[in-house]
């Protein structure tokens, strides 16, 4: 059940920090960052249901009303924390076609960023919460999907579309090709980590896996 914001008539000791301009603004941004940092760590460690807005506020060093003033409810804060985690490790710049870079090099760069993201401790723990019965309801899984995997998928589809338009790739179904690329990248290594049967894989093993994935993808979709 959603945690709703407390009565807005309650005095807020942080009200001056939320001014739209002036000296209070940098303090406001710092508090938002602190809230997100606390939320990311707590959600990943203890799950959505196990973390209250009071706990997040205390961890961030702000009032609960300040948390609500930034994010509205716990679901919105969870969504933003997932989005920020993905954006921090796989920023939009990864998916911009570079005029001075080779397609192979750019695909390899995206592959490395994606793999680093999905095998990070925060991502592994959050994903386990999503697939564990009783830990997340359908609406929360939808929030996770929209904020994380879907955003990454849509960004890569846009990248592929540009590469096709410029004649570097030949793809009839961009959506399918994007799914194939990310599924190949996960591979056995990710499955082993999700099952808890291995720790972080060896760097050489990861490099070989990423190189093989990019090579297979290019062989499938290089212009004929």
Automatic annotation (TrEMBL):
PROSITE patterns associated with the record: HTH_TETR_2
Occurrences of domain HTH tetR-type (ranges): 29-89
Which residue numbers delimit the DNA-binding region?
52-71
Gene Ontology molecular function: DNA-binding transcription factor activity; transcription cis-regulatory region binding
Region of interest (Disordered), ranges:
1-28
InterPro entries in the cross-refs:
Homeodomain-like_sf (IPR009057), HTH-type_TetR-like_transc_reg (IPR050109), HTH_TetR (IPR001647), Tet_transcr_reg_TetR-rel_C_sf (IPR036271), TetR_C_Proteobacteria (IPR039536)
- Residue spans with biased composition (Basic and acidic residues)? 1-17
Any one Pfam family here would be: TetR_N
Q: Which UniProt keywords apply?
A: DNA-binding, Transcription, Transcription regulation
What is the protein's given name? TetR family transcriptional regulator
UniProt organism field: Pseudoxanthomonas spadix (strain BD-a59)
Q: What is the lineage of its organism?
A: Bacteria, Pseudomonadati, Pseudomonadota, Gammaproteobacteria, Lysobacterales
């Amino acid at each position: 059940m959603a945690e709703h914001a407390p009565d807005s008539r309650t005095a807020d000791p942080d009200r001056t920090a939320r001014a739209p301009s002036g000296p209070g603004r940098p303090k406001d941004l710092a508090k938002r960052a602190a809230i997100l940092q606390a939320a990311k760590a707590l959600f990943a460690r203890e799950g959505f249901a196990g973390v209250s807005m009071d706990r997040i506020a205390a961890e961030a060093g702000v009032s609960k009303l300040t948390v609500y003033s930034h994010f509205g409810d716990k679901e919105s804060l969870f969504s933003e924390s997932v989005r920020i985690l993905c954006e921090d490790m796989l920023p939009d710049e990864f998916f911009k076609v570079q005029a001075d870079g080779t397609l192979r090099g750019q695909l390899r760069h995206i592959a490395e960023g994606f793999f680093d993201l999905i095998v990070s401790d925060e991502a592994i723990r959050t994903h386990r919460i999503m697939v564990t019965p009783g830990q997340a309801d359908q609406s929360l899984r939808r929030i996770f999907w929209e904020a994380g995997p879907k955003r990454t998928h849509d960004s890569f589809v846009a990248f592929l579309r540009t590469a096709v338009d410029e004649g570097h790739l030949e793809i009839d179904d961009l959506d399918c090709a994007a799914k194939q690329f990310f599924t190949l990248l996960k591979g056995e290594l990710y499955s082993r980590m999700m099952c808890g049967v291995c720790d972080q894989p060896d760097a050489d093993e990861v490099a070989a896996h990423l190189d093989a994935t990019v090579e297979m993808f290019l062989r499938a979709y290089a212009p004929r």
